Amino acid sequence: MEDVLACKVDKRMDGLHLFVEDPIYTFPEWIRKPLSQCVICFSSVYGSIFYWFVVLQANTLFSWSVKENLAKFGFWVIFCVILSGTNKYMSQKIKL
User: Fold this and answer.
1) CA torsion, ordered 61, 67, 69, 71, to nearest 10 deg
2) Is the pLDDT of residue 26 over 80?
3) What is the pTM of this model?
4) Which of 3, 29, 38, 63 is deepest in the core (most CB within 10 A)?
């Protein structure tokens, strides 16, 4: 039961009590941190997925550029830096 619920079970006379003793993670830290624990890291990971999804769906988005692939990459770097900074600022404002 503890494995399924990922928490500890305390059996007392008045019933069962569930509590979290230590987090049980199934992924190593180098995978877990950028995906869910670091606000700067996961904003760049998920932001990159969103950015490249939009860029690949909108074929003519960077058609104004002479070097289209360089423009896509350059704007991706700028997008990640701005998104990570914004995410850090907002997480401090709402105390995450």
Assistant:
1) -60
2) no
3) 0.65
4) 38
